[in-house]
């Protein structure tokens, strides 16, 4: 009697291909026009996937060499650039930023003047974000060119951005892989750049709307925090090299790896700042541009999804793995990177929308669970639906609240022109300029 052949385990590449319809479901739920994904496991590239359009109007699909914004994924690259300066003896990790940038922390207290690179890179300076204006997309902030955007603290974490960008030319030639996604992609052609879309809701459909890109990139003061552009092809090469350095330096106890540009990795990925983790005892912390999560545990802890639902515990019931990850979001783009050093795993995602929840976050978590096959699997499509629904309900509620608080036919208590001027908050560098238009009388 002929025996049936015993079926072996399904290869990872095939399992990931079978995941593609579910990824497209999340794409539809969250309203992402186009995205690109790349995965490395056990040090080998196993899968790439592109879906949708990088140019909706001309129906151009994304490719693995399509250029997207990395957004806050830039932070780990800036951190690595500063580490290079430390390794060369040009600066120390505990050097006050004010010693490097004399204008930093002017008018602030003594504690602010002692803020160092790790304080900024690990987001533990204690300051709120004051650099959001250039991210909004319209980019016309001041109508009078004689005006300047002023902040007494030099926009806080942008101090380290200035250090990094000012030294990029001197640092990067010895590490050409760091230049991937920056200067090399500034002049990319239209068919290779993912255009940026939020969306409008019409008759139950998400309709992507092309918007101007935020003011980021080479030479812009936000470069160090969010300015890098890259592709999935280049991200896989970049983060594979980063991961090789992390593993080698932890095994050897050294601060550098022969032939590898990344140095001081033990400091870069160490836990410098605690993140809230009320639902778990395992580690949730922040390094230098990296979030540390000991899996099983919740990912996406600094993203928008976490604001609307309690995040699932990825790899629940499975063995423990350290995950180093980060998320990025700006007007019209989202990004996600996850490194699992023990298994030489890289999961990279880039998308051209900031839609109904962070779809790249859900996709990344879904892929990680597919790679490691824990006994408990989560329905990330359901999580995506919950977040999308809450966001859709939240937007109209804002208009309703404003309308309810509005007092019709309110007469100003003073002549309208008397409200013109500059108004500065007494405790932060926040400022509002109000101008009177004599022609319109408003």
Automatic annotation (TrEMBL):
Record-linked Pfam families: Beta-lactamase (PF00144)
Gene3D superfamilies per the UniProt record, alphabetical: DD-peptidase/beta-lactamase superfamily (3.40.710.10)
TM stretches of this protein: none
Limits of the Beta-lactamase-related domain: 26-131
UniProt family annotation: Belongs to the peptidase S12 family.
Protein name: Beta-lactamase-related domain-containing protein
């Amino acid at each position: 009697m002929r025996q049936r052949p015993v079926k072996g385990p399904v290869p990872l590449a095939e399992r990931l291909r079978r995941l593609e319809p579910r990824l497209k479901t999340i794409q539809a739920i969250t309203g992402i026009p186009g995205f690109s994904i790349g995965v490395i496991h056990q040090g080998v590239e196993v899968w790439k996937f592109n879906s949708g359009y990088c140019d909706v109007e001309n129906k151009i699909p994304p490719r693995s060499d399509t250029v997207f914004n990395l957004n806050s994924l830039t932070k780990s690259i800036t951190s690595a650039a500063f580490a290079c300066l430390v390794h060369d003896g040009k600066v120390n990790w505990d050097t006050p930023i004010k010693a490097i940038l004399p204008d930093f922390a002017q008018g602030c207290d003594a504690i602010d003047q002692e803020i160092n690179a790790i304080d900024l890179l690990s987001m533990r300076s204690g300051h709120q974000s004051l650099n959001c204006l250039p991210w909004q997309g319209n980019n016309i902030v001041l109508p009078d060119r004689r005006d300047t955007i002023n902040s007494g603290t030099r926009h806080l974490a942008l101090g380290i951005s200035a250090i990094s960008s000012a030294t990029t030319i001197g640092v990067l030639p010895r590490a050409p892989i760091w230049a991937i996604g920056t200067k090399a992609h500034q002049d990319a052609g239209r068919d290779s750049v993912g255009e940026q879309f939020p969306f409008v809701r019409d008759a139950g459909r998400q309709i992507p709307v092309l918007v101007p890109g935020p003011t980021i990139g080479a030479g812009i003061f936000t470069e160090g925090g969010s300015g890098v552009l890259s592709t999935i092809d280049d991200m896989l090469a970049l983060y594979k090299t980063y991961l090789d350095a992390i593993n080698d330096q932890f095994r050897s106890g050294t601060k550098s790896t022969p032939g590898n540009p990344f140095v001081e990795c033990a400091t870069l990925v160490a836990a410098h700042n605690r993140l809230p983790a009320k639902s778990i005892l395992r580690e949730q912390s922040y390094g230098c541009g990296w979030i540390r999560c000991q899996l099983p545990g919740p990912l996406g802890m600094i993203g928008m999804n976490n604001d609307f639902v309690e995040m699932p515990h990825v790899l629940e019931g499975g063995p423990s793995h350290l995950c180093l990850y980060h998320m990025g979001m700006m007007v019209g783009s989202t990004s996600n990177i996850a490194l699992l050093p023990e298994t030489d795993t890289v999961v990279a995602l880039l998308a051209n929308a900031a839609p109904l929840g962070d779809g790249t976050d859900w996709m990344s978590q879904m892929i990680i669970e597919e790679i490691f096959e824990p006994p408990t699997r989560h329905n990330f499509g359901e999580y995506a639906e919950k977040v999308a629904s809450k966001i859709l309900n939240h937007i109209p509620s804002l208009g309703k609240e404003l309308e309810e608080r509005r007092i019709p036919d309110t007469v100003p208590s003073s002549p309208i022109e008397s409200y013109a001027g500059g108004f500065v908050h007494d405790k932060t560098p926040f400022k509002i300029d109000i101008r009177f238009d004599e022609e319109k009388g408003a």
